[in-house]
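Protein record
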Amino acid sequence: MPGARDVGTSHLTLLRVMVVLLFGVWLLYWSVRTARQADRSLDHDFGVYYRAGEALWTGGDPYHLDRGPLLTFKYAPVVAVGLMPLAVLDPVLARVIWCWIDFLAIVGVVWISLDLAAVPRERWKNVAGLVGLLVFGHVVAELHAGQTTSLWLLLSLAAYRDLERDRPIRAGFWLAASILVKLVPIALLPCYFWTRRPAVGLGWLGAWLLFYLMVPAIFLGWDRHVELLVDWPSHVFDTTTIHQATRIQNQSVMAQIARWSGVGQADGWSLESAKRLWLVTSLMAGVGLYGWLGWRRGMPVIARLSLVLIFLTAFNPLAWRYNFLALVPAYVYVVWSLYVVEEAWVKRFVLMAFSSMILTIPFPDALYGAG
Protein backbone atom coordinates (compact mmCIF):
# COMPACT_ATOMS: atom_id res chain seq x y z
CA MET A 1 0.00 0.00 0.00
CA PRO A 2 1.59 3.29 -1.12
CA GLY A 3 0.08 5.31 1.74
CA ALA A 4 1.41 2.98 4.44
CA ARG A 5 4.82 2.91 2.77
CA ASP A 6 4.93 6.74 2.68
CA VAL A 7 4.03 6.95 6.39
CA GLY A 8 6.71 4.41 7.26
CA THR A 9 9.28 6.32 5.22
CA SER A 10 8.42 9.63 6.89
CA HIS A 11 8.66 8.06 10.35
CA LEU A 12 12.08 6.62 9.46
CA THR A 13 13.24 10.01 8.17
CA LEU A 14 12.04 11.68 11.39
CA LEU A 15 13.85 9.10 13.47
CA ARG A 16 17.09 9.70 11.57
CA VAL A 17 16.76 13.47 12.02
CA MET A 18 16.23 12.99 15.77
CA VAL A 19 19.27 10.72 16.02
CA VAL A 20 21.43 13.27 14.17
CA LEU A 21 20.19 16.10 16.41
CA LEU A 22 20.82 14.10 19.59
CA PHE A 23 24.26 13.20 18.30
CA GLY A 24 25.00 16.86 17.61
CA VAL A 25 23.88 17.84 21.12
CA TRP A 26 26.09 15.10 22.58
CA LEU A 27 29.13 16.38 20.64
CA LEU A 28 28.39 19.94 21.71
CA TYR A 29 28.22 18.77 25.32
CA TRP A 30 31.63 17.10 25.04
CA SER A 31 33.13 20.16 23.39
CA VAL A 32 31.94 22.33 26.30
CA ARG A 33 33.03 19.76 28.88
CA THR A 34 36.52 19.37 27.47
CA ALA A 35 36.85 23.16 27.20
CA ARG A 36 35.98 23.56 30.88
CA GLN A 37 38.41 20.79 31.76
CA ALA A 38 41.24 22.57 29.93
CA ASP A 39 40.26 25.84 31.55
CA ARG A 40 40.71 24.36 35.04
CA SER A 41 44.09 22.66 34.61
CA LEU A 42 46.33 20.77 32.25
CA ASP A 43 47.05 17.93 34.67
CA HIS A 44 45.69 15.21 32.43
CA ASP A 45 46.68 13.35 29.26
CA PHE A 46 45.96 16.18 26.86
CA GLY A 47 47.90 18.52 29.15
CA VAL A 48 50.96 16.33 28.66
CA TYR A 49 50.70 16.66 24.89
CA TYR A 50 49.97 20.38 25.00
CA ARG A 51 52.92 21.12 27.28
CA ALA A 52 55.25 18.99 25.15
CA GLY A 53 54.36 20.94 22.00
CA GLU A 54 54.61 24.19 23.94
CA ALA A 55 58.06 23.23 25.25
CA LEU A 56 59.39 22.64 21.73
CA TRP A 57 57.79 25.84 20.47
CA THR A 58 59.48 27.90 23.21
CA GLY A 59 62.83 26.11 22.99
CA GLY A 60 62.33 23.86 26.03
CA ASP A 61 62.65 20.12 26.62
CA PRO A 62 59.41 18.05 26.44
CA TYR A 63 60.94 15.19 28.44
CA HIS A 64 61.78 17.21 31.58
CA LEU A 65 58.74 19.26 32.46
CA ASP A 66 58.78 18.25 36.16
CA ARG A 67 55.09 17.33 36.31
CA GLY A 68 55.61 13.96 38.01
CA PRO A 69 56.00 10.47 36.46
CA LEU A 70 52.32 10.13 35.51
CA LEU A 71 52.46 13.34 33.47
CA THR A 72 55.68 12.54 31.61
CA PHE A 73 55.81 12.93 27.84
CA LYS A 74 57.06 9.53 26.64
CA TYR A 75 56.61 9.72 22.88
CA ALA A 76 59.04 10.26 20.01
CA PRO A 77 60.25 13.82 19.30
CA VAL A 78 58.32 13.83 16.00
CA VAL A 79 55.07 13.53 17.98
CA ALA A 80 55.97 16.65 19.98
CA VAL A 81 56.69 18.44 16.69
CA GLY A 82 53.26 17.41 15.43
CA LEU A 83 51.71 18.90 18.58
CA MET A 84 53.35 22.29 18.14
CA PRO A 85 50.49 23.80 16.07
CA LEU A 86 48.07 23.07 18.94
CA ALA A 87 50.47 24.55 21.49
CA VAL A 88 50.39 27.99 19.86
CA LEU A 89 46.63 28.13 20.52
CA ASP A 90 44.84 28.95 23.75
CA PRO A 91 44.57 25.72 25.86
CA VAL A 92 40.77 25.80 25.76
CA LEU A 93 40.58 26.08 21.98
CA ALA A 94 43.34 23.49 21.57
CA ARG A 95 41.46 21.06 23.84
CA VAL A 96 38.24 21.40 21.84
CA ILE A 97 40.11 20.84 18.56
CA TRP A 98 41.81 17.79 20.06
CA CYS A 99 38.40 16.45 21.14
CA TRP A 100 37.13 16.71 17.56
CA ILE A 101 40.28 15.10 16.16
CA ASP A 102 39.75 12.29 18.64
CA PHE A 103 36.13 11.85 17.61
CA LEU A 104 36.88 11.90 13.87
CA ALA A 105 39.60 9.29 14.42
CA ILE A 106 37.06 7.05 16.18
CA VAL A 107 34.71 7.43 13.22
CA GLY A 108 37.59 6.46 10.94
CA VAL A 109 38.29 3.37 13.05
CA VAL A 110 34.69 2.18 12.69
CA TRP A 111 34.75 2.98 8.95
CA ILE A 112 37.87 0.91 8.24
CA SER A 113 36.62 -1.91 10.47
CA LEU A 114 33.39 -2.12 8.45
CA ASP A 115 35.42 -2.15 5.24
CA LEU A 116 37.73 -4.92 6.49
CA ALA A 117 34.72 -6.98 7.58
CA ALA A 118 33.29 -6.64 4.03
CA VAL A 119 29.99 -5.37 5.42
CA PRO A 120 27.73 -4.24 2.53
CA ARG A 121 27.27 -0.46 2.48
CA GLU A 122 23.52 -0.73 3.01
CA ARG A 123 24.22 -2.45 6.36
CA TRP A 124 26.85 -0.01 7.62
CA LYS A 125 24.41 2.15 9.60
CA ASN A 126 22.90 -0.84 11.40
CA VAL A 127 26.21 -2.45 12.31
CA ALA A 128 27.87 0.87 13.23
CA GLY A 129 24.92 1.77 15.46
CA LEU A 130 25.17 -1.46 17.47
CA VAL A 131 28.95 -1.20 17.70
CA GLY A 132 28.65 2.42 18.85
CA LEU A 133 26.36 1.31 21.66
CA LEU A 134 28.81 -1.37 22.76
CA VAL A 135 31.87 0.88 22.77
CA PHE A 136 30.10 3.96 24.12
CA GLY A 137 31.83 3.71 27.50
CA HIS A 138 35.23 3.44 25.85
CA VAL A 139 34.50 6.43 23.62
CA VAL A 140 33.48 8.56 26.61
CA ALA A 141 36.66 7.56 28.46
CA GLU A 142 38.77 8.44 25.40
CA LEU A 143 37.18 11.84 24.90
CA HIS A 144 37.42 12.65 28.60
CA ALA A 145 41.09 11.70 28.87
CA GLY A 146 42.11 13.26 25.56
CA GLN A 147 44.30 10.23 24.89
CA THR A 148 45.93 9.03 21.65
CA THR A 149 44.29 5.59 21.46
CA SER A 150 42.00 6.55 18.59
CA LEU A 151 44.92 7.97 16.58
CA TRP A 152 47.30 5.01 16.79
CA LEU A 153 44.39 2.62 16.26
CA LEU A 154 43.25 4.46 13.12
CA LEU A 155 46.80 4.44 11.75
CA SER A 156 47.21 0.74 12.60
CA LEU A 157 43.97 -0.26 10.90
CA ALA A 158 44.91 1.73 7.79
CA ALA A 159 48.26 -0.08 7.76
CA TYR A 160 46.65 -3.50 8.18
CA ARG A 161 44.19 -2.85 5.36
CA ASP A 162 47.02 -1.83 3.01
CA LEU A 163 49.02 -4.89 4.04
CA GLU A 164 46.12 -7.15 3.15
CA ARG A 165 45.81 -5.40 -0.21
CA ASP A 166 49.52 -5.70 -0.99
CA ARG A 167 50.36 -2.02 -0.66
CA PRO A 168 53.61 -2.18 1.33
CA ILE A 169 54.62 1.46 0.82
CA ARG A 170 51.37 2.85 2.18
CA ALA A 171 51.23 0.22 4.94
CA GLY A 172 54.70 1.21 6.12
CA PHE A 173 53.74 4.89 6.06
CA TRP A 174 50.76 4.30 8.38
CA LEU A 175 52.31 1.72 10.69
CA ALA A 176 55.53 3.69 11.24
CA ALA A 177 53.46 6.71 12.31
CA SER A 178 51.36 4.50 14.59
CA ILE A 179 54.40 2.98 16.32
CA LEU A 180 55.83 6.43 17.02
CA VAL A 181 52.53 7.59 18.52
CA LYS A 182 52.33 4.47 20.68
CA LEU A 183 54.75 1.52 20.79
CA VAL A 184 52.04 -1.14 21.19
CA PRO A 185 51.35 -1.46 17.40
CA ILE A 186 54.70 -3.24 17.21
CA ALA A 187 52.48 -6.27 17.85
CA LEU A 188 51.39 -5.96 14.19
CA LEU A 189 54.88 -6.68 12.84
CA PRO A 190 54.35 -10.47 12.56
CA CYS A 191 51.41 -9.73 10.24
CA TYR A 192 53.97 -8.89 7.55
CA PHE A 193 54.85 -12.58 7.29
CA TRP A 194 51.30 -13.35 6.14
CA THR A 195 51.71 -11.09 3.13
CA ARG A 196 53.06 -11.84 -0.35
CA ARG A 197 56.19 -9.69 0.05
CA PRO A 198 57.20 -9.54 3.73
CA ALA A 199 60.77 -8.36 3.10
CA VAL A 200 59.60 -5.49 0.90
CA GLY A 201 56.98 -4.47 3.45
CA LEU A 202 59.40 -4.52 6.38
CA GLY A 203 61.94 -2.60 4.33
CA TRP A 204 59.44 0.17 3.64
CA LEU A 205 58.40 0.20 7.29
CA GLY A 206 62.03 0.74 8.31
CA ALA A 207 62.44 3.48 5.72
CA TRP A 208 59.35 5.34 6.93
CA LEU A 209 60.43 5.02 10.57
CA LEU A 210 63.78 6.55 9.69
CA PHE A 211 62.06 9.32 7.77
CA TYR A 212 59.74 10.20 10.67
CA LEU A 213 62.58 10.14 13.16
CA MET A 214 64.56 12.60 11.05
CA VAL A 215 61.70 15.07 10.44
CA PRO A 216 62.19 17.03 13.71
CA ALA A 217 65.70 18.01 12.64
CA ILE A 218 64.11 20.30 10.03
CA PHE A 219 62.40 22.34 12.76
CA LEU A 220 64.79 21.93 15.70
CA GLY A 221 68.22 21.73 14.14
CA TRP A 222 70.40 18.63 14.06
CA ASP A 223 72.13 18.95 17.44
CA ARG A 224 68.97 19.57 19.45
CA HIS A 225 67.14 16.85 17.55
CA VAL A 226 69.81 14.24 18.29
CA GLU A 227 69.78 15.22 21.97
CA LEU A 228 66.01 14.63 22.20
CA LEU A 229 66.20 11.43 20.17
CA VAL A 230 68.79 9.97 22.53
CA ASP A 231 66.77 11.05 25.58
CA TRP A 232 63.45 9.63 24.36
CA PRO A 233 63.95 5.84 25.03
CA SER A 234 64.68 6.42 28.73
CA HIS A 235 61.17 7.87 29.22
CA VAL A 236 59.11 5.28 27.34
CA PHE A 237 58.17 3.38 30.52
CA ASP A 238 58.14 6.30 32.97
CA THR A 239 54.40 5.94 33.65
CA THR A 240 54.67 2.22 34.48
CA THR A 241 54.94 2.85 38.22
CA ILE A 242 53.89 0.56 41.07
CA HIS A 243 50.77 2.66 41.56
CA GLN A 244 49.77 2.40 37.90
CA ALA A 245 50.61 -1.29 37.67
CA THR A 246 48.41 -2.27 40.62
CA ARG A 247 45.36 -0.01 40.14
CA ILE A 248 42.16 -1.98 39.59
CA GLN A 249 41.33 0.25 36.62
CA ASN A 250 44.37 -1.18 34.83
CA GLN A 251 43.00 -4.38 33.27
CA SER A 252 46.12 -5.66 31.51
CA VAL A 253 47.83 -8.99 32.06
CA MET A 254 50.76 -7.05 33.50
CA ALA A 255 48.48 -5.45 36.09
CA GLN A 256 46.90 -8.78 36.98
CA ILE A 257 50.37 -10.25 37.58
CA ALA A 258 51.34 -7.22 39.69
CA ARG A 259 48.24 -7.52 41.86
CA TRP A 260 48.50 -11.30 42.15
CA SER A 261 52.18 -11.15 43.18
CA GLY A 262 51.65 -8.37 45.75
CA VAL A 263 53.78 -5.72 44.06
CA GLY A 264 54.16 -2.76 46.41
CA GLN A 265 53.49 -4.84 49.52
CA ALA A 266 56.11 -5.72 52.13
CA ASP A 267 56.11 -9.45 51.30
CA GLY A 268 55.33 -9.06 47.59
CA TRP A 269 57.38 -9.17 44.43
CA SER A 270 59.30 -6.24 43.05
CA LEU A 271 57.84 -4.47 40.02
CA GLU A 272 60.82 -5.64 37.95
CA SER A 273 60.07 -9.29 38.78
CA ALA A 274 56.45 -8.83 37.73
CA LYS A 275 57.61 -7.21 34.49
CA ARG A 276 59.86 -10.18 33.72
CA LEU A 277 57.01 -12.65 34.22
CA TRP A 278 54.77 -10.45 32.06
CA LEU A 279 57.42 -10.38 29.31
CA VAL A 280 57.80 -14.17 29.31
CA THR A 281 54.02 -14.64 29.33
CA SER A 282 53.61 -12.13 26.49
CA LEU A 283 56.24 -13.84 24.34
CA MET A 284 54.74 -17.30 24.90
CA ALA A 285 51.21 -16.10 24.15
CA GLY A 286 52.41 -14.15 21.12
CA VAL A 287 54.31 -17.09 19.62
CA GLY A 288 51.28 -19.33 20.12
CA LEU A 289 48.82 -16.83 18.64
CA TYR A 290 50.86 -15.76 15.63
CA GLY A 291 51.89 -19.34 14.90
CA TRP A 292 48.25 -20.43 14.90
CA LEU A 293 47.16 -17.46 12.78
CA GLY A 294 49.94 -18.19 10.29
CA TRP A 295 48.65 -21.75 10.04
CA ARG A 296 45.02 -20.64 9.63
CA ARG A 297 45.59 -18.55 6.51
CA GLY A 298 42.00 -18.95 5.34
CA MET A 299 40.56 -17.08 8.33
CA PRO A 300 38.56 -13.90 7.52
CA VAL A 301 40.70 -10.77 7.51
CA ILE A 302 38.66 -9.06 10.23
CA ALA A 303 38.76 -12.15 12.46
CA ARG A 304 42.54 -12.36 12.30
CA LEU A 305 42.90 -8.65 13.00
CA SER A 306 40.46 -8.90 15.92
CA LEU A 307 42.51 -11.62 17.60
CA VAL A 308 45.72 -9.61 17.17
CA LEU A 309 44.08 -6.52 18.71
CA ILE A 310 42.67 -8.53 21.62
CA PHE A 311 46.20 -9.81 22.28
CA LEU A 312 47.61 -6.30 21.94
CA THR A 313 45.07 -4.88 24.39
CA ALA A 314 45.48 -7.60 26.99
CA PHE A 315 49.27 -7.53 27.01
CA ASN A 316 49.63 -3.75 26.86
CA PRO A 317 51.29 -2.96 30.25
CA LEU A 318 48.75 -0.18 30.88
CA ALA A 319 45.27 -1.11 29.68
CA TRP A 320 42.83 1.56 30.76
CA ARG A 321 39.21 1.83 29.77
CA TYR A 322 39.96 3.89 26.65
CA ASN A 323 42.47 1.29 25.46
CA PHE A 324 39.54 -1.07 24.87
CA LEU A 325 38.67 1.01 21.81
CA ALA A 326 41.09 -1.35 20.09
CA LEU A 327 38.32 -3.97 20.23
CA VAL A 328 36.13 -2.06 17.74
CA PRO A 329 37.05 -4.43 14.84
CA ALA A 330 36.16 -7.40 17.05
CA TYR A 331 32.77 -5.86 17.86
CA VAL A 332 32.16 -5.18 14.16
CA TYR A 333 33.01 -8.78 13.31
CA VAL A 334 30.70 -10.23 15.96
CA VAL A 335 27.79 -7.88 15.15
CA TRP A 336 28.10 -8.60 11.44
CA SER A 337 28.13 -12.32 12.22
CA LEU A 338 24.58 -11.92 13.54
CA TYR A 339 23.52 -11.06 10.01
CA VAL A 340 25.33 -13.85 8.17
CA VAL A 341 25.39 -16.78 10.62
CA GLU A 342 22.36 -19.01 10.15
CA GLU A 343 22.62 -21.12 13.32
CA ALA A 344 20.05 -19.82 15.80
CA TRP A 345 22.06 -20.90 18.89
CA VAL A 346 25.00 -18.72 17.81
CA LYS A 347 22.76 -15.69 17.47
CA ARG A 348 21.15 -16.34 20.86
CA PHE A 349 24.56 -16.70 22.51
CA VAL A 350 25.89 -13.47 20.97
CA LEU A 351 22.72 -11.56 21.85
CA MET A 352 22.91 -12.74 25.47
CA ALA A 353 26.57 -11.72 25.68
CA PHE A 354 25.83 -8.30 24.22
CA SER A 355 22.83 -7.83 26.49
CA SER A 356 25.06 -8.49 29.49
CA MET A 357 27.57 -5.92 28.26
CA ILE A 358 24.88 -3.30 27.61
CA LEU A 359 23.39 -3.82 31.07
CA THR A 360 26.80 -3.34 32.70
CA ILE A 361 27.65 -0.10 30.83
CA PRO A 362 26.42 2.02 33.81
CA PHE A 363 28.60 -0.14 36.08
CA PRO A 364 32.01 -0.23 34.36
CA ASP A 365 33.77 -1.74 37.38
CA ALA A 366 32.13 -5.03 36.46
CA LEU A 367 33.97 -5.09 33.14
CA TYR A 368 37.19 -3.12 33.20
CA GLY A 369 37.46 -0.91 36.26
CA ALA A 370 36.27 2.64 36.72
CA GLY A 371 39.10 4.55 35.05
About this structure: Residues 360-371 have pLDDT under 50 and may be disordered.
